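Q: Hi! First time doing this. I have a protein sequence and I read that you can turn it into a structure. Is that right? Here it is:
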Amino acid sequence: MNKVVVGIFNDRGRAEAALQELKSHGFEKEISLVARDESDHGSGGGQDLSEGTFAGGAVGGIAGLLAGVGALLIPGIGPIVAAGPIAATLTGMVTGGIAGGLIDLGLPEERGEFFEEQVRQGGILVSMKAGDDKIEETASILRQHGAHDVEVHQSD
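A: Yes, that's right. Below is the predicted 3D structure, encoded as structure tokens:
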């Protein structure tokens, strides 16, 4: 049975280290990242800006570690960068915001709204779908690298 683990990083370097470790354990395609794009390039208004645009941005190096990097303008939050499976979900749900994308992953509405607020305040959200046999390992890696509010939820 699949579950999703989510956590928030307040430090770009720690988030990057966690992603590198997750990738070294073979979890590449399942990892998602969402963060505010604080660069000058973040006003793309929903277009895919994955071709090197984020190199100078605050989360560029992190997002570049994952597939499917895109930029979106989310009402009430502003420009964000999203990578991994959640990027496609958010692209189709701009009006639902980050919370809507997280609800689609299996989080309850109030937790989706909580994590959306964390991103609004500058946090870097990392999430990953995994089977029961890998979910604790994933949560442990996030915690070891400094993630807070690490939670596991049943995935749809």
